[in-house]
Amino acid sequence: MTRAVLAASLVLLLGAPTARAAVPEFPQDLPGDVTASSVRSDPDTWLVGAKPGAEAERVAARFGAHHSGLGNYVVERAQARGFAHALEARGLLVYSQANTVLKSKQAVPDDPLSVPPNAWRSAVVSPATAPPPVTPESPLIALVDAAADPAHPEWAGSAFSTLPGTPVTNAHGTATAAVAAAPQNGVGILGVWPGARALNVPLATTPGVPEGGITCAASGEAIGKAVAAGAAVINMSYGSPSRCAAEWVQLYFAIAKGIIPVAAAGNEFQQGNPLEFPASLPHVVTVAATTPDGRSASFSNANAAVDLSAPGVGIMTAVPPALDTDGVQDGYQIMDGTSFSAPMVSAALAWVRAARPDLTPDRVVQAVRLTAKDVVSPDGQNRPGWDPLTGFGVLNIDNALAVPADKLPIQDPYEPNDNLVWVDGTAFGRASTPVWQGGKQVQVDALLDKQEDPVDVYRIIIPAKKSASIKVIPRFGDPSLEVFTTEAVSVNDLDGRVAKSRKVGSKKTEQVTVRNKGSKKRSYFIAVKPQGSSRYQERQYSLRVR
Fold first, then answer.
1. How far apart are CA 180 and CA 233, in angstroms?
2. What are the pLDDT digits (tens) for 247-273?
3. What is the pLDDT of residues 413-432, one digit of tens each?
4. Buried-most residue among 19, 43, 156, 202 (CB within 10 A)?
5. Upper half-sphere CA count for residue 209 (Cβ side, 13 Å)
6. Within the chain, which residues score under 70 in pLDDT?
7. Separation of alpha carbons 305 and 39, rounded Å
8. Burial of 351 by CB count in 10 Å (0-12 exposed, 13-18 middle, 19+ buried)?
9. Contacts by residues 128-134 (CB-CB < 8 Å, ≥ 24 positions apart)
């Protein structure tokens, strides 16, 4: 989970409403719209998202749309409006947006700082700490990035590989992979988890598109390939100030499979400090950069999404010799940026997953971020706890390995369930398993976070002519309770809400009763949200249904 702020609902610009509107929390832009013309994007294509299924595929074929995974489609710009309207008329439209341009997060130019090659590794793990043995079953780190050079001498004897077919034209993919997994082989540097199973998933590039040719569609498609390859952790050292719905859907699909996504926070603090995506999406582990003396790097973005930080200044790493630009073409270069902080955390998460199989993926994330080492504030004061510059502090793998399980937050089940779209079948093509469908009482213990995980939605089935008694019991903080019908498209769709309970106070149980008056069983959606003005972001509660 991350401390992300969900974007405000966008205006629906697709014409008259139908029986089921598009999802309002997703982009709803078409060629010619003011919002669409304000972003950098591929001039020839558009992205349109549909509820996955055969009917959407038939509509897509009519408009020549290319399927890029789940319900994501890439279509020629001239066909986008017609394609979106056709999907909307059938109640299948999820989103539409420009095929926005993303960029790598390495660029902090002209920093002359030079440090010994492995000094950054000793800042995140003791050299005396032995990593887990690497086996074919070890957690796979998938690095979605520029194509890496698998022939670099750094990889001799390692488990590193890359998906073939993309030429190596940029040093970034090799550099990030080496930070994560460069083996102990007497050559070059040592990665965080030396010799870890690591897979470079090249981002397809489009000629004529700025910022290296990386588009929103390419990101979504590459994340899908990482999922298909069996990744345990997905590293993304790139981003954009524009949300990419194709990327969002693929990442949430990955999270539902127990995969941990990690993203670089961004290097634009001195250029306005914008929110970056995918780093600012909920449930993405967002990584900021620190200097060799453990301070926040001047370029590193700071916001509520930041979970923790790792060294990002003066990072000696491997690059393709032909692309080595420091004056000595030896295949190694000192680089700066949150791009190199993120793969340190990705490798750490894979390491902890291997070493602590008793922890669920979300509790692995908690072990890594909550045990980070506090960072001194820019004013020289040491203020323990989270801050927007460095999150919970600098990565410390030794602490993450040692923290007792009973000192970590409880498992947060059924994620991602931040809105109806992730639970009702709209995004993934199939509705989630109901937590209750009549009969004896069930209890779900779960967490909320005002920034990272602002809503929990659960599907229940109420039998015909029966009622459901629903309670939310606060354990920490103050949650609220709402219930929606299947006609609702969002937890903000008040027309689809059939019950609510909002008693202010952290010791007051929320309770409603919902009756299905129909002659057939019916699905309903329970939404639990944080409320109140507590200075704490987190909430813990028990949901009971009978």
1. 11
2. 999 999 999 999 999 999 999 999 999
3. 999 999 999 999 999 999 99
4. 202
5. 24
6. 1-22, 34-39, 103-118, 208-213, 534-537
7. 22
8. buried
9. 129/397, 129/398, 129/401, 131/193, 131/194, 131/196, 131/351, 132/193, 132/351, 132/354, 132/355, 134/159, 134/193, 134/195, 134/196, 134/197
